[in-house]
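Each field is set out as follows.
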Amino acid sequence: MQLSVLYTFKIYPYIVCLSDGLLYQLEHCPHKRTKVFRKLTYNEKRNAYYINGQLVTKKRLQTLKQKL
């Protein structure tokens, strides 16, 4: 199964939306304690994703989305 990047986001260049519809975080601080590639966790109660310990709503990400 091969996935391709559909979207990136203006403020978060290291967050991508792949063809499976999920958001992933790429490595953005080399040689630091960041995970190389991970799926972002979604909080259904607040309708938001956790990015760097902060909640970012789906609506906010829709406005920041850039198609490739």
